[in-house]
Amino acid sequence: MHSFLALLLLNIAISFICQPFVKYFTIGFLSHLGLDILNKRKLRLLYPRKKGFSLKLCPANGMVNYILFLVGSALSVAEIIIFLIRIVRN
């Protein structure tokens, strides 16, 4: 599931359900891959090729992962609050 082939196949499946969601899914999927490539574990981005890619900057259970989780969570909560405020105002 961490490959460009998975991105393509999932985009095709999502386009059958709701075409406008494809671009948002693609952005989320690519940002997920971008963060995962920092991990020490290799990603097989060009699946089915065996070669994997990794920048080996941080382990999945390390401090960087935890900080990114906290920042992402805070931004998500802020976005939800802003969205709800806009709904209430309208």
Q: What report would you give on this structure?
A:
The chain is mostly helical and 90 residues long. Helix 1 packs antiparallel against helix 2. The chain has three helices and no strands. The chain has two domains: 57 residues, no CATH class; 33 residues. The protein is flat.
Describe the structure concisely for a colleague:
By secondary structure, this protein is mainly alpha-helical.
Net shape: flat
**Strand and helix order:** HHH
State Rg: 16 Å
Number of helices: 3
Integer tally of domains: 2
Structural class: mainly alpha
Main beta-sheet annotation: none
Tell me the layout of helices and strands.
Elements (H helix, E strand, L loop, with lengths): L3 H14 L3 H16 L26 H27 L1
Helix pairs in contact: 1-2
Defining key terms:
90 residues, 0% strand, flat
